[in-house]
Protein 1
Amino acid sequence: MRFDRSDAVFCHVTSLPGAYGIGDLGEGAREFLSFLGDADVDHWQICPIGPTISAAGESPYQSPSAFAGNPLFVDPEGLVDDGWLDGGDLDPVPEFPTDRVDYDAVREYKLPLLRTAFERFEERASEDDRAALDEFREREPWLADYALFRALSDARPEDVWTEWPEPLRTRDPEALAGAREEHAREVRFREFVQWTFDRQWRDLRAVAAEEGVSIVGDVPIYVALDSADVWASPEAFRLDEGNRPTAVAGVPPNAGDTGQRWGNPLYDWEHLAETGYDWWLDRFRRLFELADVARLDHFLGFVKYWAIPADSDDPADGEWRDGPGRDLFETVERELGEAPFIAEDLGFEEPAMDELMAEFGFPGMRVPQYADWCAEGNEYQPMHYGEGVVGYTSTHDTDTWAGYFEDLPAKQRDCFRYNVGSDPDEPSEWAIIDAVWGSDAILAVTTLQDLLGLGSESRFNEPGTLDGNWEWRVARGALDDEIADRLWELGGKHVR
């Protein structure tokens, strides 16, 4: 096992409090880390921190880059501290909603500030500043292609890159050189923003380390088609001669549903194996620059994956194909050492997946909202969690615990109370937190919403829908000393 027994709180960056419409890497994040430190919580778990786009419903799992950071997370006050903005540049601050993110309003406010900061950098930067940016360019090989991709995407906002003129779509060297010259200033702007994000994130990680908090990042197995990842490394994916997908990801039909067609391009695992999985090693290296632990989303896809012909809208037309399995993770261990991975294994029963997780010591996930509370020995009941799992009270994709419990049939509620030994007068969210913390799970995790006892109106994401997701924010001051003290006591009772 690659983990010590420990605990965590899930809160995506967007949900943090702050004055500028969205959680960012500034004061609100530092206050949250201070709360975790006071509660003696070991980990902060987040969603992927890449850029998001409105066309994908702001989903962090459909980002234009698996390597870049979200520009909206940049702290404007940090740009003032750097000297690239003046204090007056931040005024007037719009009256943003405090309980949710209005992404359009945040972009309208923040992106001009980033461009002003870039213009000041171009005018005022010292030799040391310019050298630091140059060092970042050299250190991050993905940056040049990402910056050019975003510049080209801005120039053709109506098209995904697979509809660009063929020389750009297929990365003709002469066309790329011309594009870099034509869009040189926009490319430099994108590089500046990523450098700024990287510096602010590293500063925040240092604060986390001072509080004794590790960061649990998230790795979506698939990347978006309209991304710098696919455009810049077409050989890593199953594309045709025109660099368009031949098959896309999804899951097959099950009893009661018709399956799902996600539409993400599939990896060319044979080519990746021949190159020593360089693309994945680069991705993991970047991840572990930004986080200490990684959750691997849809872990089954590393064992086997459902391939749907790109010209079909019917998931039933797909077929199972073999993933890289142990070969990939042996390579990762050889090159990077024992990487601390959590495997998202929910919803699938696959012996080969279980064997792979056991071989490498990757804990799976257990979410009590999937439990039948009246069934003896149900694996999703916390009292039956083994050491090789991470126990959650809820996740970013489920309802909040309070929302789930409100809709639970009376008999299931009674069985829940009986099984966890809770008083009917005790809030059910603290009963489940106590049960998960008291389980044998190697890592116990709750969400900010569950700590606050919030209902379905505070749900973070509902899979299969676009509107209203990824918006929830916590109010400043909501995480008080009483909650920190209670978490501290639970940790002392069950974890430490």
Protein 2
Amino acid sequence: MPALPTTSLVAVIGAGAMGAGIAQVAAQAGHPVRLYDNRPGAAAQAVDGIDRQLGRLVEKGKLDAEARAAIVARLEPVEAIEALADARLVIEAIVENLDVKRGLLRQLEALCGADCILASNTSSLSITRLAAGLDHPGRVIGMHFFNPAPLMALVEIVSGLATDPALADDLYETAKAWGKQPVHTRSTPGFIVNRVARPFYAESLRLLQEGAADCATLDALMRDAGGFRMGAFELTDLIGHDVNYAVTRSVFEAYYGDFRFQPSLIQQELVDAGRLGRKSGRGFYDYAEGAQRPDAVALASDLRVDSCVIEGDLGVAEPLVARLQAAGIAVTRRDGAGLLRVGDAVLALSDGRLASQRAREDGLVNLVLLDLALDYGKAGRLGIAWAAGTSAVARDQAVALLQHAGITVSPLADIPGLAVLRTVAMLANEGADAVLQGVGSAGDIDLAMRAGVNYPKGPLAWADAIGLPAVLRTLDNLQAAYGEARYRPSLLLRRHVAEGRTFHDQP
């Protein structure tokens, strides 16, 4: 299907940060753009703001002056909605209120031509409900940009029950022509990103509530081991707890109280206290002038370790072996069940069981569990937990071995799945259910999470790399430990394991 030609007039309603950003994107792509806001003068102020932003790009040498002038010339602020009558595409970016948006869409349907596409930038409202009651609901579609729209690559093309499939294809190609990375998704609660991302916040919040570690340590593990740009606590402080909590509650309620999406009492308390994060000066961290960010907890050892034994294949942690060897550690390999032995200590990658449970069930003395890392060959930090009865000497030996490989070691309480592993397993599980329910393809879900929230790897591709049997085992063990449906594995994950497939195999 073809993208809209650049001669097509694009109208944007709402001159706030999102609306202005979308208008800038369309104008940069070559379209004439009319920007409307019901607040007098707001559209003109937004165009002036865009001009200033482009001016800063010119000053930095990232845009030439002629291009700036051409973009601004294509932006026309208007004071009456009737000026949008001849638009080919209207994108509304107004208040996130169903009734207000539906009223606007009814007004636009009467005003604009029959071939005009009516798009909503909603991040959470049902496109099906927005279109219901219109004479031509097939022309209504979601075009969900991420903030800031000129910089963020992802656009979710959201189809409601009545949306014309050809229209969705047209807007997909249009978003590509605008330099974006679009994905198709159905109009279900949270679409792709706001649904699949919930475990990233939820698991860290639960770990904090259970005393697994403090905020700074959990954030450091997500960054330095998991490869995420920010941990959950610093990210929710940036987003704003009122916003993040509201999205979680919305998804939770939309799924009829499914405990996979259960909001956190800790976050609710922050909202109740007005500690909304950076914008209020305090959230999980203190942002007052001169306030010091707490350091992550790290273990240290003075022991000298020069050898270790690898029993069997370490699976996704196998790159750690070459790293140990590069650090001068003599490695002996022999058959076994995927264990690493150093002195009295036995190290193993977590499988979702408590360390004490695994030590008892597998007959392992001085067991130390390793958390997941995005890349064990490069990770700057790893989380560990140990079984009850593990000697101080064995713990010290485990820490010393990892230290010699240049890895900072952070302790976690003996909790199922540790920190990074359980988070990634839950992200993959949610992605799998989204594929199963036809919300999006595996490829689109992975792209959405990389381009929309900057994940270091798509959660389904990450699960493929870990090995789907290992992910399923982790979730089964988490569910057994907690006795909650929150950790129930997706049927699609079980099916793929039974069939010996990965998420990205061609059917």
Protein 3
Amino acid sequence: MRSSGVLMPVTALPSPWGVGTMGAQARAFVDFLSDAGVSVWQVLPIVPTSYGDSPYQSFSTFAGNPYLIDLDDLAEEGLLCRDEYAGRDWGSDPARVDYGALYRERFDVLRHAVRRLERDRAGELSSFCDRERAWLDDYALFMAAKDAHGGAPWHAWEDALRFRSPEGLAEAREALADEVRFWRGVQCLFFRQWDRLHDHARSRGVRIMGDLPFYVADDSADVWSHPEQFQLDESLRPREIAGVPPDGFSAIGQLWGNPLFAWDRMKADGYEWWTARIEAQLRLYDILRIDHFRGFDTYFAIPAGAVTAADGHWRRGPGIELFELLEKRMGRCEIVAEDLGYLTDSVRALLAESGFPGMKVLEFAFDTRDGTGSEYLPYRYPTNCVAYVGTHDNDTALGWLESAPLDDAMLAREYLHLDPREGEGWGMMRAIWASAADLAVVQMQDLLGLGSEARINTPSTLGANWQWRALPGFDSPALAARVHRQMELYHRLPDVATGRSPRDVAEKNEEE
């Protein structure tokens, strides 16, 4: 079925409290999408962010980001008093997230809410902790221990805790019991609000597409609690790290720094950790995009301590076997495979065998720096794919037209018949809406006509990423009406009663 989506990080929503949250503005954004005839909201990972503020480098692959907990909703429930958070410094620029201010202020506020949660909703909290015990106990202890060690990575902790001796764990649980309860309570608050938001999206016919990073952070509860699942040495440090080789955008490649998976050991236990990870994600989302899908075929291994990625080499991943086991366990899953970057015939074969839709990025069709060229021209898109103008790792449409090599931008303008009166960004969106792709997703910034100042992330850079926020009123009725008309024109408007597009309805009527 033809459909459309909008990529909008939850953090980028407006709010008076420093960052977008899962509260009233998120529910209003769902309403905007529904009114616009858009049926998919794509979000970035909603996990806790660590150093660098990237949602792709998290303290846990299972936990939720405390910054996304809405304070006003907590106040409405009687879990907060407004004066406990309204007078704090949440940052001076409503168009940017100030992560330093969030780190300084948010957790003190949440402590008030957790105390009331423990007092007034003890049964609900206990049920949540029992249900999520498989990951929650280790995560809560990890965060409590990290705070007790001044934020130091777990590799710097004392040996008894670093190597998880039974005595060391028991001593830490006793000494840090109050903090462990706090971190459990924070997660209960998060998932209560996520469930409310997800239910609201379902009620408005909007499906949420989540995003699962392929790797996990070295300094995470995941690696600390399951070191056997990773390629670590005797001191529990990575032997090699993840990244990607040099390409048209980076002459030295990218050093991601994540530990690599111990695929042989994972295979021996039936990929239990991976299947549990995906299963948990699919309880949160209706559709799951898996980042760096090619890593299941072959992954790039770089010696630990390398200065660049140039000395890395490719190694074989688990292939289709993992997904066959996943399907036996869960049935057919709605997964989108991020198949961008350096692709080989074996990667393409894995994607075809999985049956998952891949991704097509319009900007790549004209960008000679990428080197893939015509593969990304809209007429070549298969039906079973998700089309983008650009992803969160790319510039906005207008930003790309300004920053791309002049000949590339001129070719795009000519090929796509871009017209400043329509809006050149709208012309680029029109190209993917008109394509054969089952799902076409645009960035919210492109709907707003924003340039590079609104770019979400520039890979291989630090300091200014993940900060962009929309200003109040961005999701106006006039914009919803304009988008709705485009969805109608390009047969991406869902039929409310049947969930089918107008074309599907017309074809069914003709058959009858």
